[in-house]
């Protein structure tokens, strides 16, 4: 590659960053700049990322929906009114997507994944796009993350993740932490489908990482909060505590489960563990 092409590519990134600060990912002039960048270097990862977020931003709009829940998709309502029967109706402003433009974003990220199959940022970009698009029923988001977990655990290849324009190698410990963050996101959405996705992902990851306590604790929290089964929840909390005895969040959850069971002896046991964890 000639020196002039390196300079040209660097100049596109510089111009993109300046324009991004001024107009956002899909503002005036962005499409032309990214199209020209694509012609100059179609496999440039920064260009592919810029193109993906251009389509995502163009596809997005907002709408107001009425819900009975006092919290929706992890957010508080923008407005609450009462209907004619005196029941609270909560109004939320949520994202909606133009399907055709959203499909263009998916084509871009699929192309990026085909070029760089071990680059985790592109895999997460796709899963996060589905998560936002599907809102309260993250079926495709879950399918993508489960597929990623399988690929990561079975490929035998080195995987990387771009953070602050630097590529870092991702080992199994870091990957488990990344997926745990995704589990937390699914749980925070707080819808019936997202809770089920949270459970399925946690169970799959527990199969891959039986010695990682967070996935066991996740399964316990599902039984505690969603299934309303504190007895089963405690079984998973105990398994997690055998691995990490000083995990305070897990201990606190175990205390709550013991209280729900009205088992004073168990509650005292976990309170003692909580004291020991603070020493």
What would you note in describing this structure?
The chain has 279 residues and is mostly helical. A three-stranded antiparallel β-sheet has the order 1-3-2. Helix 5 packs antiparallel against helix 6. The radius of gyration is 23 Å and the shape is globular.
Largest sheet features: 3 strands, antiparallel
H and E string? HHHEEEHHHEEHHHHHH
- Helix tally equals 12
User: In what order do the strands lie side by side in the largest sheet?
Assistant: 1-3-2
Amount of helix: 55-70%
Characteristic terms for this protein:
mainly alpha; 3-stranded antiparallel sheet; 12 helices; 279 residues; two-stranded antiparallel ribbon; 11% strand; 5 strands; disordered N terminus
In a nutshell, what does this entry contain?
The chain is mainly alpha-helical and about 280 residues long.
